[in-house]
């Protein structure tokens, strides 16, 4: 009898705009169970709301970012308007000194036509549901979005994407 290999441990840093807290919470509540049931991967994640009382917030955020394997970027106009996100987080995720691999997700619609400043995110494949952001959907369509996002994350972590010719 062959034993299953141990699960891949994946640490995810959640990067988001506090103006989007309700939408972020809704997505995370749908995404977490979908990630939990993926075979072969053990996900854990961190977001700035988990900072401890008295902890230096900037140092705490940057330390967690340097420790993560992937950064889930919840994109929105507010995300790109956040000075901390654009000057501190994104250079460590998207820039030349990137320590984490980006998982950009369209939380609220941001045009991808070059008309907005996206600080390098425009060069990465952004997850949408047939071009729709999470905010564009409701009910069961949000459940499907979270399920499809979990599958896309699984594919990225497990290095899928190659197709036989």
TrEMBL record:
Residues 12-111 form the TIR domain. It holds the Pfam family TIR_2. GO terms for biological process: signal transduction. It comes from the Bacteria. InterPro entries: TIR_dom, Toll_tir_struct_dom_sf. This is TIR domain-containing protein.
